[in-house]
Write a structure and sequence with these properties.
Layout (H helix, E strand, L loop, with lengths): L4 E5 L3 H12 L3 E5 L3 H11 L3 E3 L3 H4 L5 E4 L3 H10 L1 H4 L3 E4 L4 E3 L5 E3 L7 H8 L5 E4 L6 H7 L8 E6 L2 H13 L3 E6 L20 H11 L1
Parallel strand pairs: 1-2, 1-4, 2-3, 4-5, 5-8, 9-10
Antiparallel strand pairs: 6-7, 8-9
Helix pairs in contact: 1-7
This protein binds NADP nicotinamide-adenine-dinucleotide phosphate.
């Protein structure tokens, strides 16, 4: 398969797993992280499939889409930093709006009823096309469930418009999964920690039933 070029900003636990899955499907990657260390180590393990960009803006050069594999708390500042070129791109966000408190408990960063997709859409510049995807499974499960056979595993996604949806589907297939659209960005709460579609590894028929049951 001949892939396109995708930027991945954030090469921690999840960004690394997404990068390895996409690279295994033939995607060319441009990587950046807070310091060059983790992006460099990841690129070294991916051979010719990935290059380390000079910075977050440089990561976008020549890319058709960018995956912002960042903690929810830093998303807005990175979006502001790269806003101008984002206007022409598909922006894929896997971030869950959660953090951990001093005791290690998971805390929600958004009030009940407000989805991460709606908040992120408000941070993006006009012309950027948002898809919420790749954040429903733990990184290790994402890596192990790709290219499953005989029945592929599904990755659920939500997208604002056709172009975002088409690119999300291409990336999900490249990563070795079957895409399942749940609806527009306003539906993205279903994908998050605590949502009914979060953490599920299911095939296409079960996914279709779950989408219509909970929609
Ligand atoms: N980990 C999972 O299993 C998992 C599963 C589903 C969804 N998610 C979601 O994925 C997101 C990322 O989680 P994670 O576990 O991968 O977090 P993580 O391991 O802490 O990785 C965060 C990455 O963001 C980079 N970063 C921080 N500030 C940056 C900046 N200003 N510019 C560029 N890169 C920056 C860090 O760079 P350095 O490497 O240089 O520090 C690091 O590579 C979260 O929102 C989480 O909710 C995670």
């Amino acid at each position: 398969m001949t892939g396109g070029t995708t930027a991945i900003i954030g090469t921690g636990g999840l960004g690394s797993a997404i990068a390895r899955r996409l690279a295994s499907g033939g995607e060319h990657l441009r990587l950046s992280s807070a310091d060059a260390g983790s992006a460099g180590a990841l690129a070294a393990g991916l051979g010719g499939a990935a290059v380390v960009a000079a910075d977050n803006l440089d990561a976008l050069r020549g890319a058709g889409a960018v995956v912002l594999a960042l903690r929810f708390t830093v998303l807005n500042s990175v979006i502001e930093q790269i806003a101008e070129p984002l206007a022409g791109l598909v922006v894929v966000v896997p971030s869950n709006p959660v953090s951990t408190d001093a005791d290690g408990n998971i805390v929600n960063l958004l009030p009940p009823g407000q989805s991460s997709g709606q908040v992120v859409a408000g941070w993006l510049p006009p012309g950027a096309r948002l898809a919420m995807a790749f954040g429903t499974l733990p990184a290790g499960v994402l890596e192990s469930a790709g290219n499953r056979s005989p029945e592929p595993a599904v990755l659920f996604y939500a997208a604002a418009g056709d172009r975002a949806g088409e690119e999300a589907e291409r990336l999900i297939r490249t990563a070795g999964f079957e895409p399942a659209k749940i609806g527009g960005i306003e539906q993205s709460g279903r994908l998050e920690v605590g949502g009914d579609l979060h953490g599920l590894v299911v095939g296409p028929a079960a996914a279709a039933a779950l989408i219509s049951d909970g929609g």
